[in-house]
Write a structure and sequence with these properties.
Blueprint: E1 2-3, E2 8-13, E3 23-26, E4 36-38, E5 45-46, E6 55-56, H1 57-63, H2 68-71, E7 76-78, E8 84-87, E9 91-92, E10 105-111
Antiparallel strand pairs: 1-2, 2-10, 3-10, 4-7, 5-6, 7-8, 8-9
Length: about 120
């Protein structure tokens, strides 16, 4: 589990029936380990799942009305080659697999519960 500065968490879970933008299913055959959580870099783009081409991370923040003060601390999950694999809570990339697809990693993005200390 990774506890983020915004009191959100990203955790590798074994099973979930959820399927929104707070869940990302990945195949270890398609990404390079280890995975990292970082913040945005100038010019970051992702290949949004279901779209052709790439979209700028900043445009996704604007489209989703993310306040400017939160954009520089928003988590971005990348692989060891710095490929963006997920924008937690907002968008999935071409690396995300459907519930019926082939995957062996499930990441979940959620609010840290009060009183929880690791």
């Amino acid at each position: 589990m990774v506890i983020l500065p915004n009191q959100m968490c990203i955790e590798n879970v074994s099973v979930t029936s959820e399927n929104g933008n707070d869940i990302c299913r990945l195949s270890s055959e398609e990404i390079q380990f280890p995975l990292y959580v970082r913040t945005r870099k100038e010019g970051d783009k992702i290949a949004v799942k279901g779209m052709k081409g790439h979209k700028k991370i900043n445009d996704i923040f604007i489209d989703n009305k993310i306040p400017s003060r939160k954009r520089d601390t928003w988590p971005i999950v990348v692989d060891s080659l710095d490929n963006i694999v997920w924008l937690p809570g907002l968008k999935k990339t071409q690396f995300d697999r459907t519930k019926d697809g082939k995957y062996d990693i499930i990441l979940k993005y959620y609010l840290k519960k009060e009183g929880f200390d690791e």
